[in-house]
Structures are given as C-alpha cells and as structure tokens.
C-alpha cells in the first residue's frame, strides 16, 4: 500500500473533467453507503434520513486535536489517490468498502465556558484561522458544502458537492463564522463585542415546534376575564440559550415567554405551612417599553418541603437509546444527568430503568436507591443504536411504575430523549391519549429533551402537559445539574394540582390588557370552575410568574377604539379595585378544587419602576427579552441595550450565575440582530 501511494505521488494527474469529478464523488458515496450497511446502521433521524458524507466529514472538526490530525492526514492522503484512480476508470468503478475495524470514539460533552482559564481563553482567541495547503487534485470545499442548501428531489449529493470545487482545483475557504465555542468565549471576555459574521441558521434537519401566536390585546369592556393554567416548564429558555450560544436566533415558535420567565429562581413570599400549598402576590408598576401602560405582575410560590416531610419516590428512567442519541450532547450527557439525580435520592426511593430503540426493554428492575452502585452501573452500560420505538417504551415504563407503585408517595416516569418517535403509535393524539389515561392511575410523566436536529419540542410539550409533569431541555452539564439536582424537589414532588388562574379587570380602571405568554395554557372562562379540566402542577418550592400589560382607562396609549353601539360600562367609578385575582387548585389526592382570591387595588400601583423589587424588575427584563426574540413590533423602540440595562440593574445576588449568563445572552442577541 505504501509503495503504491509513493508511486502515485510521483505521477502527474491528468486534466479533470466535470464528469470525472462527479464520478469520483459518486464512487466515494457508494463506498460510504456500503460501509454503513455492513454494520448495524443507527436510525439517526426521522424520515429514515442518515448523516450525509459531508456531515460526517464535518464531525472531524469536533474531534479532539490528535484525532482530528490523524483523520485529516488520512483524508489528505486518500482523497487525491481516490480522485486519481477514479479519473483513470472508464466507466467509473465502485470502490469497495474498507473493513469497519476502527474503534469508535464517543466524545464527552464540551467544557462549559466558565471552566476555561484566562490563559486558555486568550490562547484560543489568538489562534490564526486554519488554512489548507493547495493540492493539485481537486478537493471538496468542506465549508461551502456544509453550508450548501439541501439537494432538491432528483439532484445527487455529488452534484451539489461538485459546485463547491474551485476552477483551479484548489481548496477554497468560504467565509464562515468563527468556531462556536470561541465565539462564546469572546462574548464572555467582552459582553459588548459585536460579530460581523452572518447569523447561523438552525440545523437543516429541522427541530419541530408547535408554538402559537402571541396573545392579542383585549378590550376589558368586551372581554374582562382572562383564564389560564400555570406553567412551570423551562425548556424554551434552555433551547433558546443553546441556539444563541451557537450563533443563531431561535425560531419564534420555540420562544415561550412564560418558560423563560419561570426559568429563574425568585424570592416571592412563601406560605407559612403545608396547609397553604402556595401563596400569591400582585404588584402594579410602569411598563418600561410602552409609555402610558402598566404591568400587573403576579407571583406564586409553593411551600418548600423539608427533608423530613419529603415522601418516598418511585422513579422510572425511560431512556431513548436509539441511533440518533449517539452524539456527545445526547446519550453521554443524559447519562451524566441521571447520575446527578441518583445522588439526590434517599434509601426510601426506588429506581427502574427502561430503554427503547427498535424495541423497549428493562435495563434495571425496581431497585432501592440505597444500592446506588447497581443503578449507576445500569446507566453507564447504556449504548445507542436502532430506531425509535418511543410509544412502546412509554407503555413499558408505565407498567413498571405501576408494578412498584408507592401509595401516598411520588410515582413518576422520567422520559429522556431527543424527541423523535418514529416507530409505533407516534402521533401526538395517540400519545396524548395514552399519557392522559395513565395519569389517572397516579403515575405522572416528566420529559427531558436533549440535542438538536430532530428535536420534537411540540410532542415533548404535549407529553409533559398531559402527564402532570415538567418539560426541561438539557444542553449542558450545568443545566443538568440545575434541572436534576438543584430543582429536583420542585420538579419531582408536587404540592398542588390543576392550578388555574383567573383575572377579572375592572372596566372603570382598565381599558385593555394582554397576558404575556401562556398561549399554550389558555383556558376558556368556564374551565376555571370545571374540576374535570386539567391544568398545571406546582412542586415543592416552585415559583410561578405571570405578567399582564394593562392600559389604564383614559390613557393615550389605548389602541382599540370604543364600540359605537357598545353597552356603557357597568362598573362603579368609585371602586378602587384594578382587578380581582382568583386561583383554583386541588390538594394532592383530592378530587374537588379549592378557591383562593384577592383584589388588586389601583392605589397600590408604584409610580416608578425603580421602586419595584429586584426580582420583579429582572422578571420584567426576561419578559422583554422573550418578546424581542419573537420579533414583537411593540418592542421595536425598546432595544437590547435597554433590556440589558434593566437586567443588569436587577442582577442581585445571583449565587448560581444564571442572571449573569442571561445578561451575556442579551449581548449575543444584539449582535445577531432583531427580527
């Protein structure tokens, strides 16, 4: 082999033709396909799509430096030889696949930016761009091919790749944004830095979302009552953060303001005893982005269980081990996340592990958490391959949860997946029906999403909402630690169920209102008193925030004209009530709901936003951030700098650095531009 390569290296290659280039690339693709079929082919993506040759080549750039160097040398050696041999063949011959004897290397999740030392950061930023020496044989422009549009029906991949070749046969370095991690580090060093690189587009494979349009402004005289279910999910914020750190604005449908606001811990007043599951407070203040309007801020906080009050838990880890999970930010990160959760459990808790790929299976029968080594060994042994039989896995997990059911305890399935179910009953309606039925048995479902490319956010939301659970998105080890360690109590241990909020505005005091977010949680007015209508749950210590934008009666900021033939306002002008807030909820195990209510007085409204608490001001900044990401035209005159200033002034103690990270995201969003 060495002699053959040495002999070839001294030969002058013949002139290439477009046909020869296409033949060579087709031969390489045929060899790649043959090798893929000779092994157990992981079902990587929905619609039976697999990674392309170009996508596979691009993964070399994510390898550790020694592995990348070895792969690069191999490519620079084999590609010229392959192209030369292909030019000599008439007709082109198919190159036989090499034996698949290379050891598979699974990368670990990248270090979080905060773990880099100052010298490492400066070293990364000082590195010159990578260059490729010109070669006589024509080669793929990897950068251009990676950024090229997907092939249209009937167009071969080789045709697209051939378009990226230079007329001179040299490798062309197309303009490309800097490495994502270096870009993140640059922002950490200089939050005000702006990049002139074009924004990246979301992954071409397409994550899926089922977002709804923002709630419209409503006229109080016509529709004075607003009703919705609470929401304690956080997936939207974590997903948007990942997109921004990778240099792209998140899709508008992926932005749910309530999940962004509720991502952060706040210090809302807490109830005094478990007899009062949660406590609600309301604050009225000026609206920083719309002069002439105000914000009505409602904060709820659940009672925090002590260790002695905590009930035993029966947990089933339902883990997606299909081929699409074989990426560093999926199964390896998932396994580490569950190890963190296991460390928070007590000897009274029980853990089972169910896996699903081409079919479901039980990796660990119900095991006491005191035997942590056995649980961790079962988690560590997991590997990824096959297709995604998610529906079958859910049924197996519920059966195992019911088998080890803990009366008067917590029984919950934790589904961890990249979100794509493509085998079995995969329709949203079928799975929704299954989860709703199983919920009645007392076994709840929470969802942890991982990775990108085929992440089905809409389905994850459907499962969590109908399973009386929480939907979270895990993109880093830090997020895994937050979701499954710091927030484990609130995420796993509910204190009140079917929590609904209804706000009635006084038409003598308020002309218009709009609820920020909660579009997927909206309820009909009559649903508030119907105990059969499902709503969200509050966990131990959970905090829930809702913000209304309201327009006072007579304000020049009023946007909807009075009706010509509308009925006159019936409210008494002398009333000082701005609004009336009602909450309905069920204590655990109870079938009948309880009612709590209180008025919001107009005289209690604060005149300046600086008079508002730090936590409230920060939550308002997050609300503005979410609306800005959605491209809300009402915030066109309220820029990223104004939002950042508001958040910076309300950063507070910030023990875990969540708010500091948010402020850096504002700088990244500004550099990427508004919609």
List keywords for this structure.
6-stranded mixed β-sheet, 675 residues, alpha+beta, globular, 5-stranded antiparallel β-sheet, 3 domains, Rossmann fold, 20 helices
Would you kindly provide a written description of the structure presented here, covering whatever features stand out?
The structure is a single chain. Strand 9 (444-450), helix 15 and strand 10 form a beta-alpha-beta unit. The chain is α+β, with helices and mostly antiparallel strands and 675 residues long. Helix 2 crosses helix 4 (65-88) and helix 19 runs antiparallel to helix 20. It folds into three domains: 2-176, no CATH class; 218-228 and 243-257 and 284-305 and 495-672, no CATH class; 313-492, von Willebrand factor, type A domain (Rossmann fold, 3-Layer(aba) Sandwich). Helices cover 33% and strands 18% of the residues. Mean pLDDT is 77; it is low at 36-118, 128-189 and 194-205. It has helices spanning 2-9, 18-38, 53-58, 65-88, 118-126, 142-147, 157-162, 180-189, 235-245, 257-261, 331-344, 372-380, 390-403, 428-439, 457-466, 477-486, 488-492, 614-629, 640-649, 658-672; strands at 218-219, 225-229, 278-286, 294-302, 313-320, 350-356, 360-368, 410-417, 444-450, 471-474, 494-505, 510-515, 536-539, 543-552, 577-587, 594-601. It starts with a helix and ends with a helix. The strands form three sheets. The protein has a six-stranded mixed beta sheet with strand order 7-6-5-8-9-10, with helices on both faces.
């Amino acid at each position: 082999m060495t002699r053959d390569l040495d002999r070839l290296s001294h030969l002058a290659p013949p002139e290439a033709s477009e046909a020869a280039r296409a033949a060579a690339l087709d031969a390489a693709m045929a060899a790649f396909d043959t090798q893929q079929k000779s092994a157990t082919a992981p079902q990587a993506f929905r619609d039976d799509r697999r990674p392309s040759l170009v996508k596979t080549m691009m993964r070399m750039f994510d390898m550790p430096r020694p592995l990348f160097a070895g792969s690069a040398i191999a490519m620079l050696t084999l590609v010229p030889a392959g192209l030369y041999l292909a030019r000599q063949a008439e007709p082109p011959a198919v190159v036989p696949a090499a034996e698949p004897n290379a050891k598979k290397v699974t990368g670990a999740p990248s270090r979080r930016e905060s773990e880099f030392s100052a010298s490492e950061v400066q070293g990364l930023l000082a590195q010159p761009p990578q260059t490729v020496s010109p070669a006589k044989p024509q080669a793929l422009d990897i950068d251009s091919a990676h950024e090229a549009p997907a092939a249209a029906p009937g167009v071969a991949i080789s045709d697209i790749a051939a378009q990226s070749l230079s007329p001179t046969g040299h490798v062309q370095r197309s303009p490309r944004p800097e490495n994502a991690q270096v870009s993140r580090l640059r922002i950490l060093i200089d939050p005000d830095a702006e990049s002139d690189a074009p924004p990246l587009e979301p992954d071409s494979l397409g994550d899926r979302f089922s977002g709804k349009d923002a709630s419209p402004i409503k006229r109080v005289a016509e529709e004075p009552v607003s009703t919705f279910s609470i929401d304690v999910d956080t997936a939207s914020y974590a997903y948007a953060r990942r997109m921004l750190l990778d240099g792209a604005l998140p899709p508008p449908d992926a932005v749910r303001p309530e999940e962004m606001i509720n991502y952060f811990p706040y210090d809302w007043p807490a109830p005094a005893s478990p007899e009062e599951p949660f406590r609600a407070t309301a604050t009225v203040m000026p609206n920083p982005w719309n002069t002439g309007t105000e914000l009505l801020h409602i904060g709820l906080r659940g009672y925090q269980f002590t260790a002695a009050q905590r009930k035993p838990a029966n947990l089933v880890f339902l883990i997606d081990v299909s081929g699409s999970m074989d990426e560093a930010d999926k199964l390896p990160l998932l396994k580490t996340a569950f190890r963190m959760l296991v460390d928070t459990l007590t000897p009274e808790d029980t853990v089972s592990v169910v896996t699903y790929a081409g079919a479901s299976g039980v990796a660990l029968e119900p095991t006491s958490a005191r035997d942590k080594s056995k649980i961790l060994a079962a988690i560590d042994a997991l590997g990824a391959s096959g297709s995604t039989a998610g529906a079958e896995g859910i049924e197996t997990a519920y059966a195992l949860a019911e088998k080890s059911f803990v009366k008067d305890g917590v029984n919950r399935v934790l589904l961890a997946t990249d979100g794509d179910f493509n085998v079995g009953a995969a329709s949203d309606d079928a799975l929704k029906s299954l989860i709703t039925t199983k919920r009645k048995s007392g076994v709840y479902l929470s969802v942890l999403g991982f990775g990108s490319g085929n992440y089905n956010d809409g389905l994850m939301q459907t499962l969590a909402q109908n399973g009386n659970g929480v939907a979270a998105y895990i993109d880093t080890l830090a997020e895994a630690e937050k979701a499954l360690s710091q927030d484990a109590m609130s995420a796993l241990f509910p204190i009140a169920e079917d929590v609904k909020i209804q706000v009635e505005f006084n038409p003598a005091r308020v002309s218009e209102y709009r609820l920020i977010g909660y579009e997927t949680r909206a309820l009909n007015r009559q649903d508030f008193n119907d105990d059969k209508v499902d709503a969200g749950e509050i966990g131990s210590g959970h905090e829930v925030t809702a913000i209304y934008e309201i327009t006072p009666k007579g304000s020049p900021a009023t946007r909807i004209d009075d009706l010509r033939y509308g009925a006159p306002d019936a409210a008494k002008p002398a009333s000082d009530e701005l609004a009336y807030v009602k909450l309905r909820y069920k204590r655990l195990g109870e079938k009948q709901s309880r009612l709590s209510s209180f008025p919001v007085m107009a005289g209690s409204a604060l005149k300046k936003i600086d008079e508002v608490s730090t936590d409230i001001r920060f939550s308002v900044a997050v609300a503005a951030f979410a609306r800005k990401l959605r491209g809300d035209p009402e915030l066109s005159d309220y820029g990223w700098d104004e939002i950042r200033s508001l958040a910076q002034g309300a950063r507070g103690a910030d023990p875990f650095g969540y708010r500091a990270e948010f402020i850096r995201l504002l700088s990244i969003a500004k550099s990427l531009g508004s919609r």
